[in-house]
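In response to the reviewer comment on reproducibility (Comment 2.3), we provide here a single inverse folding case reported in full, input and output, so that an independent group could reproduce the run without further information from us. The structure tokens appear first.
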């Protein structure tokens, strides 16, 4: 009789354990949050450079959480911060750190936030595929082309021996964090730039790609992922940084040998919005998977411990 009782108890315990395991697997994402419980809209805006990274996270998150709509805009880093400071969006993509003035405006508006690094990028200088004379550019030569007091009108003005063809210059517009970063590194001050008839400022980075592709004497710059997407149309220019001649690549961006044109990329998260379960679940998903997305869209992943630290910080 005792043996029969023990068998009944053992069968009952096995049944309970199996049922609990099936329930957890069927109703959860890898964030540990029940998928069926998540709903709502998450609005994100900001850097077009960071856009493909966040968009990839949004698409994959949406496959596991059909009740959550994640909208990702491309207003540029500055444009994204304007909406972020007004409290219009939960998250802002940024290709540069938040400026002191923007941080002060956020504080005055009662917006508390977390700064999260998501990947590394390398600003890529490109010329037309048929350009046979540019083998490299020094930082001083870039300033001759893009600086606020730039006088170079032809390629011969940049380096003796190059053709006297007028340079057609392309740059991201002033709302882009890429513009801020480039002008600070090359011209010595963010937002300080050449501004005459020879330069075209583009709100859409794809316009720079098509502009450089269509003019033999043109030059432009943007994030490494845009070059990777369009490398069959453009010629990448190695940069002489004073110690070595280096081209952007996964290796040179990650080991910082492409400095000073390598940089971290960010997302800024409204901590009030983080109280919403769908926002917290998306942010955790983003940080847990962004290393894979970074490789897919042409960025360089951070060390895993950096992502782990930031995931842990979401609960503080």
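Designed residues, in position order:
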């Amino acid at each position: 009789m005792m043996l029969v009782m023990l068998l009944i108890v053992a069968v009952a315990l096995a049944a309970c354990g199996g049922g609990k395991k099936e329930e957890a697997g069927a109703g959860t994402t890898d964030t540990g949050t029940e998928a069926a419980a998540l709903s709502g809209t998450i609005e994100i805006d900001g850097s077009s450079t960071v856009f493909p990274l966040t968009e990839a996270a949004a698409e994959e998150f949406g496959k596991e959480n059909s009740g959550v709509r994640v909208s990702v805009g491309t207003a540029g880093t500055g444009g994204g911060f304007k909406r972020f400071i007004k409290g219009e969006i939960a998250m802002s993509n940024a290709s540069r750190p938040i400026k002191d003035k923007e941080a002060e405006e956020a504080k005055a508006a009662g917006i508390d936030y977390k700064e999260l690094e998501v990947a590394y990028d390398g600003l890529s200088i490109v010329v037309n595929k048929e350009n046979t004379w540019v083998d490299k550019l020094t930082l001083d030569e870039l300033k001759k082309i893009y600086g606020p007091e730039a006088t170079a009108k032809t390629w011969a003005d940049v380096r003796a021996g190059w053709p006297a063809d007028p340079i057609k210059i392309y740059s991201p517009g002033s709302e882009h964090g890429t513009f801020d970063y480039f002008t600070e590194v090359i011209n010595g001050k963010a937002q300080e730039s050449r501004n005459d008839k020879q330069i075209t400022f583009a709100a859409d980075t794809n316009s720079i790609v098509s502009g450089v592709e269509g003019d033999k004497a043109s030059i432009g710059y943007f994030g490494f992922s845009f070059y990777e997407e369009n490398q069959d149309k453009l010629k990448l220019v190695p940069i002489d940084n004073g110690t070595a001649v280096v081209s952007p690549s996964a290796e040179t961006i990650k080991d910082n040998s492409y400095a000073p044109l390598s940089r971290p990329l960010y997302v800024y998260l409204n901590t009030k919005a983080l109280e919403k379960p769908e926002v917290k679940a998306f942010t955790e998903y983003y940080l847990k998977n962004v290393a894979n997305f970074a490789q897919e869209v042409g960025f360089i992943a951070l060390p895993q411990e950096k992502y782990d630290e930031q995931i842990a910080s979401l609960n503080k």
